[in-house]
Amino acid sequence: MYKLPVLFAAATALSPFSNFLSAAEPPHDYPIRPVPAHVVHLNDVFWAPRLEVNRTATIPASFQLCEETGRIENFKVAANLSQAKWTGMAGFNDSDVYKVMEGAAYSLMTHPDPKLAAYMKQLIEWVGKAQEPDGYLYTEWTSRDRIAKPNPIRCCIPRNNKKWLSEQESHELYNLGHLYEAAVADWEGTGDPHFLNIAKKSADLLVATFGPGKMEVPPGHPEVELALVKLYRATGDERYLNLAKFFLNVRGRPSDDRPNLWGENLLDHRPLVDQQEAVGHAVRAMYLYAAATDVATLTEDATLKSTVDRLWASVFERKTYVTGAIGSTSSGEAFGKDYELPNDTAYAETCANLATCFWNYRMFLLHGDGKFIDMLERSLFNGVASGVALDGKTFFYPNPLASKGKYSRSKWFDCACCPTNICRFIPSVPGYAYATHENALYVNLYAAGTADVALADGKATIEQTTRYPWDGRIEIKLKPQTAGQKIAVKLRIPGWARGEAFASDLYRFADKADEQFAIEVNGKPIATNVEHGYATVDREWKAGDVLTLNLPMPIRRVVANDKVEADRGRVAIMRGPVVYCIEWPEVQGGKVLDLALADAAELKTNFQPNLLGGVQVIEGTTHRDAQQPDNKTETGGHVPFTAIPYYAWANRGPGEMILWLKRD
Ligand code: FUB
Ligand code: ZN
């Protein structure tokens, strides 16, 4: 066990909320440290409004839906506090409650709210009462004699009347992962150990139950592994880290408890370290690879490290949409084959897209390369932001890249993983903005606001002024604690600002842009090289110094690697990190699917404050090259259009949408 932090403020779980500022540390850890979300205060044009909508609309609505759908009552049923019956389509309904609680815990860190705090206490009490005396916590099993409508397909009553053995379906461990993440978040915010103790009691049961010579079964749906790592960081109890490692190792290895492997979709077709490419269920894969990156780092496991490097290449070099979304097929909610990236049938589950950020952030902390943040940013502004409506009240489960007109967001789902993941993910975004290594300060996300950061030689306050992502000019004021403090500011120069459309050769720019990024200190140009995606300005700083980064944001045309059949002969539009689409309201007649864009067509951009919450649009003229079946829509000729950011589509009712236009 490593030495525990003396102060509560030194909580150490590795979420973007984790406070590394004064924590005692595990013996081995990431060389780069996150700056936790609650010390990063955004007042930018993009994320600050989303954080507010998440806090005031998404979290309250999700709690309400958890109540209306019986998810919260289920805890009371299990605790014998209610005479109702257990309801739900599957035992992982518990996880939805934990995920909203995690989001609420983050929200309370920055926005104290006595009513919400009291509600959380009440929920924690019910969760605690639903826990069996030995620490087992899974409301469906505990309420097994009071199930309203047993689900014939995903029945969660464990096989042979034995707990854990139906893990491939039951999600007993998956739920617990979300429980631990929520409990750590609550503890970080409140300092109250009550919820954390519930998590510890459960984790102690897992330690007693699973391991070599004990039960040798992997989690059906990875999640508990990365949560056990968080619990290890929060408590210093190495048994939790060891168990996370065991769960990673036992995957793909048959045992008496599980003689037949569960196969590819559950990432149980062969041992993790022998897995050559990303296959199977995309959300499961992201949670698993994120945990593997943690464990590889914390246990200095070189084989596991090369495993995650190899799998990263598989996902982001061959299986990712230009929006940063992954998991192209609905069949098994899974990755397709290499380059199999259909647009209108894209599954691209919101959970999978946001989970790429969990993994890419850890890969950045491990390797210090900006390409991981480039990917993270691509998902944030596109495949993640599209998952939730502008008002925060409806959600996409799949995020297709083209629509024939019938697709829209929903308030909720029987399987509500995506909305509840949004609840906890959005407040974590500020935590991706900065990171530190000794006296180096990584500036990863550009967003107006301030942050207090701790560096080896003292603290500093950083203030960004920018209209990013609509404008690439970023002004940074750095106020060190001590005048003359040396800080190496590492400015991420996104690939798109260096002629690379994507962090791999999956997509490339089809046009040229000459203007280079530029850096100034107090108005004087600075020449810097870009290394591993960063331009470093290493100097002594004093209050009042101004660092300016200018990232030119021309409108760019993007084409896909020729191996991506669905995008062959097609072109997409990008500006900065934002990918664009054309949606029905912007084209007369609403028909957009056969629009073609000529390489020579002039494109212009302007900001429209009253459209879709304020968006930078791109205007131009396309043409049609096919007769419309309705015989009414104009064929040929010029079709003026306004392209909107992809994330903002489907906020004005259903209709056609296209991202990859025919290219002329
Ligand atoms: O199985 C739990 C969650 O439900 C998964 O992460 C999602 O893909 C959905 O299947
Ligand atoms: Zn989901």
Written overview of the protein:
This protein has 664 residues and is α+β, with helices and mostly antiparallel strands. The protein folds into three domains: 33-432, Glycosyltransferase (Alpha/alpha barrel); 436-492 and 516-550, Maltose phosphorylase, domain 3 (Sandwich), CATH 2.60.420; 557-663, no CATH class. It contains 15 helices and 24 strands. It has helices at 47-68, 71-78, 93-110, 114-130, 139-142, 167-170, 172-190, 194-209, 224-235, 238-250, 282-298, 302-318, 350-367, 370-384, 417-425; strands at 33-34, 40-42, 402-403, 434-437, 440-443, 449-455, 458-466, 473-480, 485-492, 507-509, 518-521, 524-526, 530-531, 534-541, 546-550, 555-560, 570-575, 578-583, 595-597, 604-608, 615-624, 639-645, 657-658, 661-663. Strands 2-6-7-8-15-11-12 form a seven-stranded antiparallel β-sheet, with no helix packed on it. β11 (518-521) and β12 form a beta hairpin. α1 (47-68) packs across α15. The protein is globular. The termini are far apart. The model is unreliable at 1-14 and 19-24 (pLDDT under 50). It binds beta-L-arabinofuranose and zinc ion.
